[in-house]
Specification:
- By secondary structure, this protein is α+β, with helices and mostly antiparallel strands.
- 39% of the residues lie in helices and 21% in strands.
- It has 12 helices and 10 strands.
- The strands form 2 sheets. Strands 1-5-6-10-9-8-7 form a 7-stranded mixed β-sheet, with helices on both faces.
- A hairpin with a 2-residue loop joins strand 7 and strand 8.
- Helix 1 packs parallel to helix 4 and helix 5 crosses helix 10.
- The longest helix has 37 residues.
- The radius of gyration is 39 Å and the shape is elongated.
- The relative contact order is 0.11.
- The structure holds phenylalanine.
- Phenylalanine binds next to strand 9 and strand 10.
Length: 341
């Protein structure tokens, strides 16, 4: 009993004291072992009860020893960590990144078209002349094929291959889909495109488009118009309107450019819409029968529409961004404004 209360009262502050504790209560020459040795001198009828008491004493000594050891180790660790380090302080907040505005808008575009039954398709950024130009009815001498617009790929010998290039639009995915699959098609195709243009507030040599393709029996121009009308309302709000202007693309006939009311000035006129109240967001049209044929689809049986919109333009409109270069400069003061968007 004396030993028990001695152990219960003891406190430790150094490894020397810990060693003294071990010698006295734990080691084979210690006080506890000694008591165990005396157990055989205890009368038979009391031996059991005394044995139990001794076990209690032994267990107590061991658990206190472990406790003290852990205490000393923790003290040594915090000493090693240096003075003034408070491990209970909350951590310095580490700010989360934010989603890039182009990604936000791409996701929103996909969401809107998925609800209309479009799926998402994908194609390569390095493309052959066939899928990017020839299958789309570009004549051999079309200016878009020329060096100032298209980045052609060099062979390792340094020779330029005029049949391998960086795609200039996402329309290459249209031709790939049609050539490799069977109608109906109802897909959108987001992606990165490349044109040899000087970088400015309004143009860049790398930008993003979302292509759309709907080919089935009896698809009409009205379907195109309705689809884009619905898209504009979903993307820019109920007050937005669209306008179709006649245009020309080698792969659509008839073709139209699509303008939406300028979201920034709500149609009143500003720098972004050059005071017209309208901003062009897409090219579109009915898939040219020759293109269907180039891709192995019977134009007598199927018709379709296609469009290609610029994600940068839509993002600028949606968030009131006036310089395209902000998208690629990675300035955190710009990017932070989309936290939680
Ligand atoms: N590919 C065209 C461009 O980049 C846009 C477009 C796509 C036009 C589909 C009509 C149909 O300008």
């Amino acid at each position: 009993k004396e030993l028990i209360s001695e152990i219960e009262k003891s406190t430790l502050s150094s490894s020397d004291e810990l060693e003294a504790f071990r010698m006295r209560y734990i080691s084979r020459k210690g006080a506890v072992t000694e008591l165990f040795e005396q157990l055989k001198t205890v009368p038979q009828e009391e031996r059991r009860a005394v044995g139990q008491e001794l076990n209690t004493l032994k267990n107590l000594a061991q658990s206190r020893f472990q406790e003290f050891t852990a205490q000393l180790e923790a003290a040594a660790a915090s000493e090693a960590a240096g003075p003034g380090l408070d491990l209970t302080l909350p951590v310095v907040p580490n700010p989360y990144g934010s989603i890039h505005p182009l990604t936000l808008v791409r996701r929103r575009i996909i969401e809107i078209f998925e609800r209309m039954g479009f799926n998402v398709a994908d194609g390569p950024e390095i493309e052959t002349d066939w899928y990017n130009f020839s299958a789309l009815n570009f004549p051999d001498n079309h200016p878009a094929r020329e060096m100032q617009d298209t980045f052609f790929i060099e062979k390792s010998t340094g020779a330029v291959q005029d049949d391998v290039l960086l795609r200039t639009h996402t329309s290459n995915v249209q031709t790939r889909l049609m050539e490799h699959g069977k109608p109906p098609f109802r897909s959108i195709m987001p992606g990165r495109v490349f044109r040899n243009e000087a970088i400015s507030a309004r143009a860049h040599c790398v930008f993003h488009q979302v292509e759309g393709l709907y080919v089935d029996k009896n698809v009409s121009f009205k379907d195109l118009k309705d689809t884009l009308y619905h898209f504009a309302k979903e993307m820019f709000g109920k007050d937005s309107r669209i306008r179709l202007r006649p245009s020309y693309f080698p792969f659509t006939e008839p073709s139209a450019e699509i303008d939406v009311t300028c979201f920034i000035c709500k149609g009143k006129g500003c720098n972004v819409c050059k005071h017209t109240g309208w901003v062009e967001i897409a090219g579109s049209g009915m898939v040219d029968p020759q293109v269907l044929q180039n891709c192995g689809i019977d134009p007598e049986e199927y018709t379709g529409f296609a469009f290609g919109m610029g994600i940068e333009r839509i993002t600028m409109l949606r968030y009131g961004i006036k310089d395209l270069r902000l998208f690629t400069e990675n300035d955190v003061r710009f990017l932070r404004q989309f936290e939680g968007a």
